[in-house]
Amino acid sequence: MTVNTAFSVCPHDCPSACPLVVEIPEPGRIGRVHGGDMAYTEGVICAKVARYAERVHHPERLTTPLKRVGPKGEGRFAPISWDEALDEIAARFKQAANSLGPQTVWPYFYAGTMGHVQQSAINRLRRIMGYSEQAKTICSTAAGTGWMAGTGAKWGVDPREIPESDLIVIWGANPAATQVHLMGLISQARKARGAKLVVVDPYRTPTAEKADQHLSLRPGTDGALACAMMHVMFRDGLADRAYMARYTDCPERLERHLESRTPQWAAAITGLSADEIEAFARLYGSTKRSYLRSGYGYSRSRNGSVNLHAVSCLPAVSGAWQYKGGGAVQSMGGVFDLKRSLLDGLDVPAPKVRILDMSRIGPVLTHDPRDLAGGPPVTAMLVQNSNPADVAPDSTLVRQGLARDDLFLAVHEQFMTETARFADIVLPATTSMEHADLYTSYGHTFLQVAKPVIAPVGESRANHRMIADLALRLGAIHPGFEMDAWEMIDQVLVASDLPGADELHVLGGLDCAKVFEDAHFLSGFGHEDGRFRFAPEWGMEGLPELPDHLAVTDEADEAHPFRLITPPSRHFLNTSFTEMPTSRTQAGRPTALVHTGDCAALGLAEGDLVAIGNAKAEIIVHVKPTSGIARGVVAVEGIWPSEFFAGGKGVNHLTSAEPALPGGGAVFHDTKVWLKQVEPS
């Protein structure tokens, strides 16, 4: 039997932005999802998205607007109409603005969808109404700051060059779980060229299990490892002095600085042996076609930007940028040159408003004067594409803020998340299968568009339409509010001198890759002088002038002898997919990965309950002993809903809202904790 299909694009916060072929077994329903045709993804998609029908047609999907009828956080709601819901939101926003000024309203969003039209509508409303701005720090800020400090440009070597590499270094990433297409390219290089794979990560991820070498260092010590590697490269004649003289700012100064950053020095900081560091440095320095894929994991520390900058210096010292299959990448997002005026309302004069840090939503909502910047308290919010009650750091403080009686909260969502349970009004949102959007990627170079493949489920509405309907009630005027999503996509593309929406849809995507010289920075790095900066301009005092180990992390102590990291689960994506039965079954339950030696010292066996705690909170999970993690480190994978933890508190109750230096960023892997055995009762 022939099954009808339609084309779409995965909207989730993953580097791959996969093209999709969606089975349509009957009108209004999707079936199995397959990978579409693209040179990078090559028809492969992750298991989560392959069973996307579980999400779209989930029985607990929100399908009608709701109004709270019980205490905040209890989750008791009654159905209302869209007109009633939007009228109340508009009235409460106006009331708040009339009382304390428009900055008392804080629209809050992030990457629950990566489509530019649906994600950005909230920015247009914010700008036109003069509401508080948002610093979008929770994911990529620390990493981006570190990468840009050296290169000055938000791109690197196209991953499609990996089959030409002789060495691939995956540093602070787990593509076997989070970017399967990268593993396919690595496999090609290993088969065709005998390429080596080295993984740098505090614990043995599925990617590390496939590596030729796994360097299990202590969290937050990546800068020390990179400095020791460069020390060896200079010492042993493996540094490309001719390349540095032409393309970098101060190689002689760097060499003098690194004379004391020996492998022995780094071993004491990282927990690796000096021999491991020496061997890795010589392998990297002697392999010109070395490809370094820098992930986000090690940027989630207070010193994450400094660490990432230090790592990004490696191909500049070795000269690997000169060779096909050599160089590095952190994000490819800068290859797309979209004109965003229509999307974000940039054609409207910018009001002078404060910027509130989204990673510090807990302190913001509990009136920390450092965060309110002299302005009024936040008394009204609209949350889209995010679930801060679970995802943001310091969950206890976040929930205290969300539970305030004087805070009006509207949440536009697909499911009754922990955040939605605190809302006064909950609005049902479409999935990507039900609306049109425009997609870029931070893992590849293809620009894509997608049309809806089924009608909206129930009464759900897309972000773009919901914001336009609210704008009408608030008196916010902008041409973008008058367009449907496809019209907006078309106008953005045309303004960007790109094919229009219909043409791009027929093409199936547009490759925006840079030519070799630009991708490898042989035409110059992104700074004004065209040189890579070993000495970055951080813009604040107290940070190292050259690559170094910055000792500002939440170091273990006698009372808190462990360091907690909270890496992703391959079965979830933050809190997305946690509602899907198959994902839950495959993920099992919240689990603490602890070194077998540490378990023995604590009297812990597999399956025992363990309390993990610090001054902020205590959570209870089951333990799994493993030799594949550094001593003194504990990993809890995935952001499970709180109800799945024995004590009712999720992992982010332990994490701090203190920002990474210098530009902010959530420090999810920078938490000192204690561990205690818990009696089953």
Plain-language structure description:
The protein is an alpha/beta fold and 681 residues long. The chain contains 26 helices and 25 strands. A hairpin with a 4-residue loop joins β22 and β23 (618-626). It starts with a strand and ends with a strand. The model has no long low-confidence stretch (mean pLDDT 97). It holds the Pfam family Molybdopterin. Its cofactor is Mo-bis(molybdopterin guanine dinucleotide). This is Anaerobic dehydrogenase typically selenocysteine-containing. Belongs to the prokaryotic molybdopterin-containing oxidoreductase family.
Quick recap of the structure?
Belongs to the prokaryotic molybdopterin-containing oxidoreductase family. With about 675 residues, the protein is an alpha/beta fold.
